Amino acid sequence: MTKLVISILDHMNIITLLNSLVKQPPEIINLVLAYIPKPFLPIFLDFAPLVPYILPIIIHNVRIQEGYYRSEDPIDFFSSEFYNSPPVFDSMEDLAEMVQKFDVYPKDLEMVNVLGKLAEKFPSKQDERRETTFMVWGHKYKEILHNISSIHILDPVTGSNWNDMSFCLTHRFTLGSITYLSEDLENIMRICPETLQILRLPYYNFAPSDVFLRFYNLKTLEIKNADLRIFNFLPPTTENLIIERLGTLTNFDYESIPILYKLSYLEVGIRHINDFPLVTMKFPNLKLFHIQNSHHLSDFDSLHIPDTINVLKIASCPNLVNYTSLKTFHELRQISVFNVPVSFDLFNSIEYIPNLIEFSFIHSFEYDYSEIYDLDLIKFPKSLRILEFRGNFCIQSWEPPENLQKLSLRGTTFTNGINFKFPINLNNLVMSSTNLSTMDGVQFPPGLRVLEIRENQNLTTMINTNLQQLTRLVDVKILSNQKLSKLDNFNEDLREGVVMVYNNG
Hints:
This is F-box domain-containing protein. By secondary structure, the chain is an alpha/beta fold. The protein contains 10 helices and 22 strands.
């Protein structure tokens, strides 16, 4: 990885900055490192003074993902879906280099795009015996893989790559995660170790049995179908449970369900509520609740969800009209609703949901847009940092929440144009599919980093703005505004590739 490191560090011109950083007190160094996305931490292992600070982070969990890095511009390819990834190595060879150099082994290892991928440089006449990338690594780096507590293979397992999975287990590598794309569990249950932590079976229909109880360290389980009896057959270690369709009408003793103290994430699709509230009391430490496809749910109160949750996600519940009880959910940090008719009584005072950080309200294009939502009447708490709207909204004299850092308005009707000031700390702004005919004179926040103006069919001009003064921009997209003919220039010192302007008028 050395050439890559040198290329990246030279390109970003940060060697001087790093030399200055390591002269600071340890608490300052750790604070700065906390702001560096974890996938990029291995890059800095070649900078010796930072190794004592980075190595303790890396040894907990790493990922191998070929092609993750692009040395010519590491920021350009970085997307939010990978933001929460652990530290990333490009290959097993790079990880082996770290192990040899520092004599440490990561506790957990994630592997991406390794199953069923044929290794290179094998004669074509031996195709039937060719080994996959994972098998080659398994032979060559057997000692390293045996010293890793848990190997999480993120590729889905199918019939075509089952040999890789068998190879992993017959060589006694400790498997921590598996995603199996089949309804048949016979193969998996026959060979999977009891130490399995993550089991994803998106096509599996659960029938009451103790099939999962043998996994004494299971933390995450995903299945397709089950009914409420499944809560009698979960290991007490279960933290995350995802069920695409959960049947809620069963005839059994709900008192027999054990309290699942560790269950913090529950994602379920429920057609009818029925007896579901009888089991929610068994989840005292639930922090994230995601319900979807419940066409008969009209009152959120009927679910009896603990008021201690931090994250609430509701999708495709077209008759849900009452969830004003959320006003008392003082620990809520995030609310996301999709294709749900929101009652904005929830936000008629800034005192409600006082710790809310993120609110997302999205209607898909096929949703019934007969109702218009007036943003002028909505009062968000001062804690709000992220606000996303897509739907039939109207703005006449609205004032955005003063502490917003990200604002996304899609499909919004501006009666009087943009007649408000953007929050001073706003760094991410999206304006899409609005009725705006002009954005002349708009003053954007000086710290803006992301700007997207897209598919505003009536937008003609965007001049006399302060775009020229925005020096912190890292991602600009001015796209598909069919009538846009006049646009201010951007600052000429912006990094190449930051600004994308095309398919406009």
